[in-house]
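Changelog note: in this version the structure field was regenerated for every chain. One regenerated record is shown below for reference.
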Amino acid sequence: MYALVENGQITKTFTYPKGFTLNGNQYPTKIFEIWTTAEKNAIGLYEIVTDSTNYKDPKWYINTNESLSFANNTVTRSWGIATAKAHADTLWTQQDSDDGDLPSDKSVGDVKVEGLKTQLIRELKQQVANELAKTDWYITRKTEKTTAVPSSISTHRDAVRTKQASMETAITNASDTPALETLYTYTEDDDGNVTRPLGELPTLED
């Protein structure tokens, strides 16, 4: 990305090389490639430098809109301080009811806005359902034909549910959004093993 700076102000940005007119002069697209940095800077064309210091994973945080600034012959793209998404549900309160904001189909104490914990547990339940669905046919066959479910299948299904319970507990007990993010953050140990604190659901061996 490039920015055009005139009299100390950013007047135009380029997400990709494109010809432009400046002070009555037409500059072709190729200058982005063949001109040196000094030559481009001399007419006010600067490559944008990204400062991601404040930018955080949008799964966990609400980032501000990006902004561009020009200082010390550098155009910088940056963000303000990110705000952590709510980890817990926001509930409808008596004050909402008193103010007339409570919807007719809601009661005090109902969920107003879902927090990350609720969303993550719902995602986990769907993942569990998808994993168990792979072997549901064994259960259907037993019901219809009284054919025994192989012990390895029963063991796997039990293991999935056991791990689900521990994962839901970890999510529920997370004290805040950074703690939730940590649960899902993968790290690599000295042996090259990549894991996350939350762990993984067991999967059926092929």
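Spot check on this record: The CA atoms of residues 46 and 142 lie 70 Å apart. The chain is about 35% helix and 20% strand.
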